[in-house]
Every structure is written in C-alpha cells, then in structure tokens.
Amino acid sequence: MPEESKDLIAENEELKRQNAIKSDLISISAHQLRTSLSAMKWILKMFLDGDFGNLTAEQINFMKKAYESDDRMIRLVNEMLSINHAEDSLETTHREPTDLVKLLDEVVFDFTGESYKRGIELIFLKPDHALKDVLADEDKMRVIFQNLIENAIKYSNKGGRVFVTISEKADVTEISVRDTGIGIAKEDQEQIFGKFFRAPNAKAQDVVGSGLGLYTTKRMVEKHQGKIWFESTTGEGTTFFVDIPTLG
Ligand code: ADP
C-alpha cells in the first residue's frame, strides 16, 4: 500500500477516535450539567411554592425568571443529549413506508402553542390530494422537521410567518419550511450545517441553541438518500428544502 494511503487511513482512525472522545465528553458533561440544573430548579420551585415563607412580589418575579432560565438550560442540555444519542444511533435506521403529510401535520400541530406564544403564524399548506409514501425512519423524519420548524420559529420576530409545504417532484417528495425571519448572512451560509456553528445574528437573538441541530438533520436526511439545502436573505427570511426519494 502506498505511504500516502497508509497516512490517510491512520489519520481517519485518529479522527474517529477523537470524535468518540468528543461524543463521550458531551454526554458526561451534559449529564452532570443536567443534575445540577435540576437540583437548582427544584430549590427555586420550593421558594416559589412558599415552602420557605412568603416572598414579596419582586422576589417572586426574580425567582420566576431564574426558574424559567434554568428550565431553558435543562431543555438545551436535553437537546444536546438527544442529538448526541441520535448521532450514535444514525447507523440503525429502520425504514418503513411513511405518510409525510400526516407526519408534518402532527409536527406542525405540536408547535402551535410555541409559535402562538412567540406571536408567529405557523401555516401548513397541505396538498389537496394524497401523496405517495416515502421509505423512512419515522422517528428520524420527525426530528428532521422538528428541527427545521423549531429554527424557523426561533429565528423569527414577533409578527413573522412560517410556511410548511410538501409536494411531489419527479422521483422525490419535497418539503419546504419558509420563514420571514432574521435570515442567514452570505458569509455564514457555507458553515450552516457544520457542527456547533451558530451565526452571529442568531446568537444576538438571545435564543438558546447548540449549533448541532442542522448538522444532525443533514446527516439524517442523507441517511435517507435525501438532500437538504436552503436559500436565505438577511433580514428577509430563509427557506429550507428537503428532498426524500418517493416510493414506487
Ligand atoms: P441552533 O441550536 O443554534 O439553532 P442549528 O444547528 O439548528 O443550531 O442551526 C445552526 C445555525 O443556523 C443557527 O445557530 C443559526 O445561525 C442558523 N439557522 C438555522 N435555521 C435558521 C433560520 N430558519 N433562520 C436563520 N438562521 C438559521
């Protein structure tokens, strides 16, 4: 075997080893973070429930803020854990004929409360005829669209709109998630599917994120022999497209 090939194989093994270490590190730190955050949450809850005596309105107000912020961190840590887990379980994809319209309907429904709370209109433009099934791992498909719709809501401002569409092209089913949000700057577009990448305008929005969602989403789409891409203009909005091969 030529020297260069040996070097490449050794380099690849080293990368795999480093990746496994990183994955373990995320898992260990996330579990430890979650334990401490949960302990804090329950202490704050006891204060809020009046277990340590009555609080003034101002104290309750600050306690509530701390409680909510703690809760957001716990959700973020859970997201990191589930993404880490999803990444490890990417190899075990169980695919079955899946009705994506039904699945999207459920995912959109699950986000109704969240979008309403944020003052964003979430609309699923359902096709008026039945579509063919796709061969998919339903759980992973659900995570793919949860990530895209959650981002569309997260990176939008009050009064924004999010449209979800689905249609059949030649041999693929195409789903789009369009928002009228903050958009992705040209110089950040290339890195958007990278691990841990968060664009400066997203960080400035003061919303929590890990920069892992799109990275995993892309890998999951590709496990389905699909394609994911986007079009975006800063300050105007973003549309993510997903193509999944259609059955038969
Ligand atoms: P995060 O946890 O930060 O949301 P993601 O991997 O889901 O991580 O997304 C990576 C980055 O891509 C985000 O931090 C943000 O900069 C950008 N992004 C993703 N979706 C959108 C969107 N709909 N509008 C604007 N920016 C987006």
Apparent shape:
globular
Largest sheet: 5 strands, mixed
Number of strand elements = 7
Strand order of the largest sheet: 2-4-5-7-6
Distance between the ends: 43 Å
Strand content of the residues, in percent?
15-25%
How does this model look, in words?
The chain is α+β, with helices and mostly antiparallel strands and 248 residues long. It has two domains: 3-86; 96-245, Heat Shock Protein 90. The chain is built from seven helices and seven strands; from the N terminus they run ααβααββαββααββ. The strands form two sheets. It has a five-stranded mixed β-sheet. A hairpin with a 3-residue loop joins strand 4 (161-168) and strand 5 (172-179). The mean pLDDT is 90. Adenosine-5'-diphosphate (ADP) binds next to helix 5 and helix 7.
Question: Which terms summarize this structure?
Answer:
248 residues, Heat Shock Protein 90, 7 helices, 51% helix, binds adenosine-5'-diphosphate
Topology overview:
Layout: H1 3-48, H2 57-88, E1 96-98, H3 100-110, H4 112-117, E2 121-125, E3 134-136, H5 138-154, E4 161-168, E5 172-179, H6 200-203, H7 213-223, E6 227-233, E7 237-245
Parallel strand pairs: 2-4
Antiparallel strand pairs: 1-3, 4-5, 5-7, 6-7
The protein binds adenosine-5'-diphosphate.
